[in-house]
């Protein structure tokens, strides 16, 4: 009888050892990995073992005392060096810490680019020349057409304010107001075009800068017109409480040290209010913008330093890396040597993409935060996590928030409200965006080619394709590829055409 009783715990222990159940429990305390498997039920082995251990544990202990059994189990555990587990790179392992691999990517990127950098220096010497940047904006030191054009834009701002003041007191009807605004906004788009095309001392870089300022002004004044109209509609709806909607500053003490004025329509129709909006880093007008409380000197200095540093870096990279690569691409284009064209395109893709990324940080983070901090503008959401985009749609919703917000508020939703389908409304937004992209490139280059327009419009079929056929990381890779490859195609097209138009001798000229 005693023998029988002694055998039972032995066989029980053996079974436990084979299944590895007790070691699983012990090890799960030691390392998080097995515990993780248990939690997630990632492996069938683990589940089977767990069940087995549980079954074994339910059997009545009829042999040696529990103390002695525990001692035996510990001894077996000490002999054991294997346990059920997956390889780290198997998806079943649940492992996700690839920080080291990411660092490796960065190291490889730096090393390979350092080689490229050295090769570039050996081949071309130092091409960076800050004086040349000035000549990009100024042909004649006594003629500053781009700056003059920007100063003239104040006229359109004042006209918009004047029209709104007249509308607010009912001096002009809504219809007349609409026509006046329409004329003013049309002039904002047409006047700089005429100046850029007719003034010979206007350089392409100066033209891009002036037109960008005018485009921003157009979007801002459009928003200003819309919001004031909405305010009038609300005022009419609350006609009986008209007196309460007159301007009166209401002071609120925030945290004891900042005073904010609450403005109501038509109290907002003042030079100070409009110019605050013109300089604020947003395209959407509001009567009461969220304001941050006070300047933080360190934050301002850091952003200023970044702005100065990254603009130098951008200029340096363009002069040293982009320009020679573009110049070397002209011959394959002339010979229509397709394999060399693709090679040049891929070569250009690297500096172009790097410059674009630096531009993104310089503009959307450093510069916009700097201006926002200076103006105590509280809404700092200038971009969202577009780099995680798994669809093209997500990218356009998140990369340029000021433009996206404007599109939604002043174009997309008003079109949808008229009963237009979503697809048609989205196409209309992309059409408008394509127009402005083309406007900013073709006019300053004085060369009308549809590459930027087509690039923007191609986003619609691309968005459909990526959304329909690609998911997760594949979708994200597709978005990155479209950004990395798409832009240099457009850049090469424009540069090639510009080169042909301006620098290449015509056959007749050559013969002469
Ligand atoms: C076209 C575009 C505006 C579509 O934006 P989207 O976010 O995909 O559009 P959605 O259909 O998801 O809806 C957006 C908004 O409209 C609202 N909406 C959708 N259908 C609506 C309807 N029938 N009626 C009223 N509102 C509607 C949604 O509720 C949403 O509102 P919310 O922003 O308050 O949440 C966007 O892709 C875009 O901005 N494209 C151009 C970007 C661009 O050119 N940028 C230039 C950068 S250089």
Automatic annotation (TrEMBL):
Q: Give the record's GO biological process terms.
A: triglyceride biosynthetic process
What are the protein's UniProt keywords?
A: Acyltransferase, Endoplasmic reticulum, Membrane, Transferase, Transmembrane, Transmembrane helix
Catalytic residues of the enzyme: 437
Is Ligase among the key words of this record? no
Q: Where in this protein does the record put region Disordered?
A: 1-44
| Record pathway | Lipid metabolism; glycerolipid metabolism
- Reaction(s) this enzyme catalyzes, per UniProt: 1-octadecanoyl-2-(5Z,8Z,11Z,14Z-eicosatetraenoyl)-sn-glycerol + (9Z)-octadecenoyl-CoA = 1-octadecanoyl-2-(5Z,8Z,11Z,14Z)-eicosatetraenoyl-3-(9Z)-octadecenoyl-sn-glycerol + CoA; an acyl-CoA + a 1,2-diacyl-sn-glycerol = a triacyl-sn-glycerol + CoA; 1,3-di-(9Z-octadecenoyl)-glycerol + (9Z)-octadecenoyl-CoA = 1,2,3-tri-(9Z-octadecenoyl)-glycerol + CoA; 2-(9Z-octadecenoyl)-glycerol + hexadecanoyl-CoA = 1-hexadecanoyl-2-(9Z-octadecenoyl)-sn-glycerol + CoA
* A single Gene Ontology CC term: endoplasmic reticulum membrane
Biased composition of type Polar residues is found at: 17-30
* GO MF assignments: diacylglycerol O-acyltransferase activity; retinol O-fatty-acyltransferase activity
Pfam family for this entry, one? MBOAT
Places the protein is found: Endoplasmic reticulum membrane
Please give, as recorded in its UniProt entry, the membrane topology of this protein. Answer: Multi-pass membrane protein
Decide whether keyword Metal-binding is in the record. Answer: no
Q: Where are the transmembrane segments?
A: 142-164, 176-199, 205-222, 304-323, 423-445, 451-470, 477-495
Q: Which family does it belong to?
A: Belongs to the membrane-bound acyltransferase family. Sterol o-acyltransferase subfamily.
* Assembly and interaction partners: Homodimer or homotetramer; both forms have similar enzymatic activities.
Protein name (Swiss-Prot/TrEMBL): O-acyltransferase
Please report the organism this UniProt entry assigns to the protein: Acipenser oxyrinchus oxyrinchus
